[in-house]
Sequence to fold (140 residues):
Amino acid sequence: MPLRFLLPLALLLTACAHPLPPLAPDFARVGLDSGNRADMRAYRLDGELVRQLRFPDLPPGSHGLQVRYQFEVLGSMGGLGEISEPRRRTCILGLDWDFAAGQHYRVTAYRLGWQPVGYLENAAGERLVRARVIRCGPGV
Fold:
């Protein structure tokens, strides 16, 4: 690959990897952690569609968060006794919490069979509230 193509590619990749700015003391920050072989993205904040991959920093107070969680599930047995390829399952998880200013939070999720399990955690990793499954399936 010619060198003239490598420089723009390197600049593009480093632009995506910049760190987040420091948290302002009058806001709360919510991170997302879906572990391996899964993907989690911000979906709704207080009923409004979020058009980013993560939530914006939140003013303190009660907020409703929804995330789109996509994970891999094992394939099923086919008619000839063969196991089909793993599939992706998509679910919407929701939670409500009274967020405190200056605090960092994290929404974590994992799969338990075909069902997702999610929690809101504080910066110390303590579980604060369990997320509810709003819906799962195609078109989610």
In short: Residues 22-136 form one domain. The radius of gyration is 18 Å. The mean pLDDT is 86.
